[in-house]
Amino acid sequence: MDYKAAGFEQRLAEACADGVDVYFDNTAGAISDAVMAASTWVRVSSFAALLGSQLGSGAQGPRVERHLLVKRARMQGS
């Protein structure tokens, strides 16, 4: 699946109709946002936090991924 192609978020949601169980995150960017939007109870392992803004894509909003990574924190919704 080409994550750079138009409609990626929709295709991901269709391909993972029951959501994503486990996601290995390396960027904390648009792909992570799409996985989170398409999933409930997803388990995320974060290995890096190259935010989209650092890559020039202009990511918006507060991002906690870097803190989760370097502080070895856990974030859980209810």
Structure overview:
With 78 residues, the chain is of the alpha+beta class. The chain has one domain (9-70). It has helices at 8-15, 30-38, 65-70, and strands at residues 22-25, 43-46. The chain has a two-stranded parallel ribbon. α1 runs parallel beside α2. The radius of gyration is 13 Å and the shape is globular. The mean pLDDT is 78.
Integer-rounded radius of gyration: 13 Å
Find the count of extended strands (DSSP E, 2+ residues).
Answer: 2
Helix amount: 25-40%
Number of domains: 1
Helix-strand pattern, N to C? Answer: HEHEH
- Lateral arrangement of strands in the main beta sheet: 1-2
Averaged pLDDT, please? 78
Distance between the termini: 30 Å
| Beta-strand content bin | 5-15%
Model regions low in confidence, pLDDT < 50 over at least 5 residues: none
Structural class: alpha+beta
Largest sheet, described in full? 2 strands, parallel
Assign an overall shape: globular
- How many separate helices? 3
Brief descriptors of the model:
single chain; 78 residues; alpha+beta; 3 helices; 29% helix; globular
Short overview:
The protein has 78 residues and is α+β, with helices and mostly antiparallel strands.
Secondary structure topology:
Elements: H1 8-15, E1 22-25, H2 30-38, E2 43-46, H3 65-70
Parallel strand pairs: 1-2
Helix pairs in contact: 1-2
